[in-house]
Amino acid sequence: MIVECEKCKSQFNVDEGVLKEDGSKVRCSVCKNIFLVYPKRDRGAESTPDLTIDDDMEETVALDSPPRLEDRKNVGRDQHRIPVVALDRLTLEDDLTDEPDMFMEKESESPPPLVSPKQLKSGRSSALPVFLIVIFLLFGAAAVGYFFFPGLIPGLGSPAQPVVVKPEIPDAGIHKLRIQAQAIESYFVKSDKAGELFIIKGSINNNYPTARGKILLQVSIFDGQNKVILKKNAYAGNVFSDEELKSLTVEQIDAAMNNSAGKDNKNLKVEPGTAIPFMVIFNNLPENAKDFSPDLLRSSAGS
Q1: Domain 177-301 - what CATH class?
Q2: pLDDT digits (tens, 9 = 90+) for 48-98
Q3: Strand 34-37 to strand 91-92: parallel, antiparallel, or no bridges (unpaired)?
Q4: Domain limits of the chain?
Q5: Closest C-alpha to 5, from 78, 62, 79, 55
Q6: Beta bridge partners of 60
Q7: pTM here?
Q8: Residues 6+ apart with CB under 8 A from 5
């Protein structure tokens, strides 16, 4: 006997002998819908079966197996239906539990993986040591060939010696000029025109093999924390007596120190092995001045 679910329209082959004369409740294994089914001989006399669930009906029949329909999406109510497959057995609803139907296929279940995680893990763990051993052997062979058989490897010979290139330091014409430290002296001179003057005197030796000229130097004044508080430049060869300084203004003194030729052109040509005197003059020296330092700046070829 063919039974059709009223809700999902699935068809089942039911043994008519398990149905009661006054109807039996059955449960669709596809959509779990419960409805009444009557024996075939009773349904011929009745126009429309009463689908109301009767309290006197204590037992129902569960359809345990889902229909195996092909291309169900293309089958409608009025179209020809594909033959159903007979059920193996029927079970009364009272014997059924809330457990899922054993014949229902769970959509959430995915097919078993082709390779289990354990297999992947074991495969990776076993391949890693082999890979490391191969790399180690390759490096070892390369090292042996490089150090013991360099001639066998094209392009390899004795290790090339590194070439050390020393950067060229531009010569400003002062590398072989020397300030005679033992000849440096400093003192104060009071001038009515320039105020109190601080004088630094000394001489510069020319150790170049050729003549030098226009020798320029700089004197820095430091405070107690060794910070530079004052600087002044002066060309060598501009030397004045105390009496001459007393008659000059600050502007005249600065102009004289900026004379690159020097007094009487002494700073135009300083012969090799000779020395030239210098004088650097400060006026109104700061009270926190504690020390000074003369430094050579540049020179040019003698003319």
Answers
A1: mainly beta
A2: 444 444 444 444 445 444 444 444 444 444 443 333 333 333 444 544 444
A3: unpaired
A4: 2-95, 177-301
A5: 62
A6: 25
A7: 0.47
A8: 11, 12, 28, 30, 31, 33, 35
